[in-house]
Protein 1
Amino acid sequence: MEQIAGFLAPVIIYAYIFLLNVLVPGRWVTGYATKTNSTEKLRYRLNGIQVLFIVVLTWALICHAGFLPWDWLYTYRWQGLAGAVIFGLIFSLVLVLPNTPVKGSFFADFYLGRLENPQLWSGRIDAKMWLYLVGAIMLQLNVLSFAMHHCLLYGTQSSTGILLSTGLLTFFLIDYLTFEEVHLYTYDLFAERVGFKLGWGCIAFYPYFYAIPQWSTAALPDANTPTPLLILYALIFFTGWSLSRGANLQKYFFKKDPKRTFLGIAPEAITDGNKTLLVNGFWGLSRHINYLGEIVMATGIVLCVGHPLLLWPWLYPLYYVALLFPRQIDDDKRCALKYGPLWNEYLKRVPYRIIPGIY
Ligand code: NDP
C-alpha cells in the first residue's frame, strides 16, 4: 500500500497545488507573451509563493502530527519518481494529441508541443506557470525530505554542508517564486509550446533531477567540509545568483520602462528606431550572463554537499551546461531574425555569448 501511495504522491500533491493555485488569492498581471495570432498580451494570475508556503506547511503539519515520517518522500523517492514520469507522459499526451499539428512529424509535435499558451478561465490557471509551480514545489518537498532523512540518520553528526545546500536550494526556489512575474519575460514563456519537453520536464525531471546533489548524498556521512570552505561555496552560489537575478531584473525593468535605472545603472540601449536592445550593466558583460549565473549557482550547491569526487551531484551543473549552451545558440538565432542589423551591432558591442572574456 505504501509503495502505491509513494507512486501516487506526486499526482496527489500536484492536484493539491492546482486547487490552491485556483483558490488562493493572487494578483492579476499582464505578461509579455501574446495570444496566438494577436498582439494582445496574455493575462496571468500569480500566487506561487503563497501556494509554496501553504504546501510546505501542510507537509510539515502532516509529518509533525505523525501521519507520515519526515523522510517519507525520501523513502519512496523511486516510486514517486516513477509516478511523476508516468503522469508527465500522460499530461503531455493529453495536451498534444487533441490539438492541430504544427510540425511535419508527430514526434516533433509531441516533444515541443502544439499549443502555445494553454490557459483555463481566462488566465486564472496558466499551463506553463502551473507546470513551473508544481516542479518547484515538488522539488522543495523532495529536498526537505532528503535533508530530514540525513538528520534522522546522523542526528548530531549531520552534515552542515548538506543542510546548507538544502537552504541554498530553498532560497533559489523562494527567489524564483518571489519574482514569478519576471519569469513571464523569459524564453519558454514567449517562444515555446507545451509538449513533453515542458510538461514532462516540469512534472518529472525538474523536481527529481534537480535534487540529485541531495538525493545522492543524503545517506552518506558528513564530509566534514571546513567552515571557511562552506562560506566560500555559499559565496559562489550568491555570486551566481547576483548574475542571474541581476540580469533578469535589469531586462524586466527595461522592457517595462526603458528609462528606469536599475541598481543605480541607467539603461544604455541601441536602437534602429523601432526596436531596442540593452547594451550595458549585466547585458554588457555577455549576451547571456544569466546562464553563467545559473551554472555558478548549481556549482555552489554541489560543492556544499561535500563529496566532490562523487560524480552524481555534478550531473546537476553539467545538465545546465548541456541545456543552456545550445539554448544560447538558439536564442541568438531567434534574436538575429527578430532584430536584423541591430543584432549585428549588438554582437560588436557585446561579443561574448556567456562567459565574459572567454566564450
Ligand atoms: P533570457 O531571459 O536571457 O531571454 C532571452 C530573450 O531576451 C531574447 O530572446 C530577447 O527576447 C531578449 N533579449 C536578449 N538580449 C537582450 C538585450 N540585450 N536587451 C533586451 N532584450 C534582450 O533567457 P531565458 O528566457 O532562456 O532565461 C531566463 C532565465 O531563466 C535565465 O536566468 C536563465 O538562466 C533561467 N533559466 C533557468 C533554468 C533552470 O532550469 N533553472 C532553465 C532555463 C533558464 P525579446 O527581444 O523578444 O524580448
Note: The first helix runs from residue 2 to 23.
Protein 2
Amino acid sequence: MAVIASVAARVINDSRGQPTIEVTVTDDKGRIATASLPSGSSLGKYEAVTQDAQQVVNSINKVIAPALLRQPLTDQATIDAKLRSFDDTANHEKLGVNSLLGISLACARLLAQDHNLSLYHYIFTISGGPGLTIPTPMFNLLNGGKHAENNLDFQEYMVIPIGFKTFHEKLAAGKKVFSALGTILSETGHITKIGAEGGYAPHLSTNEEGLGVLVQAIQSAGYEPGKDFVLGVDVAASALPPTYSATVDNYLALYRNFPLFSLEDPFVEDDWESWAKLKVGVDGLSEPGNPRLLVGDDLFVGNKDRLLEGVKKFSANAVLIKINQAGTLTEIIEAIKIAREHNYVHILSHRSGETLDSFVSDLAIGTAAAFIKAGSANEQAPERIVKYERLVEVEEELNIGHI
Ligand code: PGA
Ligand code: ZN
C-alpha cells in the first residue's frame, strides 16, 4: 500500500486577490496531487471556521505534515479521521477547516489514482451511488449584495437551462444569454461592470427589475422563459440591507410573477419558522412531481446536524453543499447522504472567492447532484469556466446525453 511521502502547503491568491491555500501531497510511488481552497464572503453564522491562510500554511507544514509522513493511504474515512484528530472541535476553530480540507482533497486525488479511477468515479465509490450524472448549471448572471458594489439587494440572480439535453448545450445556451444580457444592459445605459462571480453588477431600481432583465435576456437569446430557462435567486438573507422586507408574501409574489424555480436563503439561519411557512406556500405553487426549490445554504452550512434539524422542521427541500463549509471530504459526503435519505435535492456550489481547482465539479458528478452553482457563463472568469469545462469534459468521457 502507498504511504504519504510529503505534504506541503503554500499561500496563493484567489479570484478576488485574497490569500488562500494550495496543498500538495505526494506518495512513495511518485504520485503527486494538489488541491486549492475557495473562500466565501457571505459567510453563514454556523460555518466551520476558516483561519488566516498564512497561519494555516504554518499549521500544515509544521504540525500536520510531519505527523502524516509514512501514513498509509488506506481509505478516505481513515485519513479524514486522522486529519480531524488534529482539530476535533465541532467547527474546526482550533486549526481552521482549511488546515484539514486541502489535505483531505489532495489525498482523495491520490487515492483515486491508486485505484486507477477518475476523481468523480472515486467519489461515486466512496459516496455509495446512486450513479454518475452531469448536474444542470445555475448560471449566476447578475451579482448583487456582498458580491458587487451596486444597489441590488439579492446576492445572485441566476438562469437555469432546463430545456436542453446535454451539458454542452446548456453551457452554450448560458453563454448566449450572458452575452444578450450584456447587450441589453449597455443599450439601456447601465454599467457592465463584473461582480465577484463573473456576472454583471449594474445598478437597477428594484430586485424585480433584475429578474425582468434576465427574462428579457433569455428571450433576446432566442429562448423561451419557463421552458428553456427558469430563474434562481440567492437572497443571502444574512447580508440583506435593512430596507428590504423579507416576508413570505414578498417571496411568493416573486414565484408568481417570474418563472422562478429556485430560491436560496430567503431568511436568516435562525428563522426556522419563516422558512417552514414559505415552504408550505412554495409547495402550493409547485406542479405535482415538479417541486420548486427552497434551498438552504447558510441555513444548513452543509452540516449534517443542521440539515437533520431542517428536515424535522420542514424548512426546505434542497441543500447547498460548499466544499469548505463543514469539514473534510468524509463530512461533506455524510451530509450529502443525509440529503439523499430525506429526498432533499443537493446542489454543489463554488464560493465567491475561487481558484482554478475544479474538485467541486467531480464531487457533483460522483454524488449525482441535480444542480451546480459555479458562477456566470463568462469566458473572462476562468475560475468559473474551469468548473463548467470540467463538466463538458466528463460528459464527453462518459458520453452521457450523446446517445
Ligand atoms: P459566498 O457566496 O461564497 O460569498 O459565501 C456564495 C453563496 O452564498 O451561495
Ligand atoms: Zn448562498
Note: The longest helix spans residues 167-187.
